[in-house]
Write a sequence for this structure.
């Protein structure tokens, strides 16, 4: 897959809740900087983190609003809408930066305000 196809698939799988397939988009030695999780290294570390995602969110959507793709890099502005298992809502604008090589995400940075995710972090 080219960079655009990888990024399109990233959002398709996230919105379908197919987290194991979503993790497969990342290279084995991927690196990620995430607002809530901090620095993450390795696809299997990411896969372990995502195991709890379905128990955290009753519903989750991450819809791209604007995307720029240039060779092996992409930046996406999106909006997350979610509801926790306890009924709290999450609404947040997000910006993701991606580096892609050989059809896999090798680096990702996720930037957003942490306040909308307070119910998730507190278990609400």
């Amino acid at each position: 897959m080219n960079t655009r196809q990888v990024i399109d698939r990233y959002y398709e799988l996230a919105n379908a809740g197919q987290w194991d397939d979503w993790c497969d988009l990342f290279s084995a030695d991927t690196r990620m900087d995430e607002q809530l999780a901090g620095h993450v290294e390795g696809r299997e570390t990411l896969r372990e983190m995502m195991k709890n995602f379905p128990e955290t969110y009753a519903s989750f959507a991450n819809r791209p609003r604007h995307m720029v793709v240039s060779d092996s890099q992409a930046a996406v502005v999106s909006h997350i809408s979610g509801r926790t298992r306890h009924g709290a809502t999450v609404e947040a604008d997000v910006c993701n930066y991606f580096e892609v090589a050989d059809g896999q995400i090798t680096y990702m940075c996720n930037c957003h305000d942490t306040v909308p995710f307070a119910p998730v972090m507190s278990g609400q």
Observations:
- The chain has one domain: 3-121.
- The first helix runs from residue 3 to 16.
